[in-house]
Amino acid sequence: MVKNSFTSFNSFRKTSRKISIFPEYHEDPVAGWKPELNESVLTPNGTGIVVEISNGLYLVDLENQTAKVWERFTSLKRAL
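The chain above was modelled as a monomer; its predicted structure follows.
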């Protein structure tokens, strides 16, 4: 009797994974840090204080410099 190759045991086939590739969906986003007005932050140009927030951009008044710089949230870090 010849076994059908589709239904026979194949020792080279890996077992199916039961772990999902994608993380579970959470309805509530994880609360993270967002800079607020008059908060000290680190930027690629140096440390400064958030002066204005508009459409996801932050106006930062740099310390020891006369410049004010618009930065995205992704380029800001919390100053210690």
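The two ends are 75 Å apart (CA to CA).
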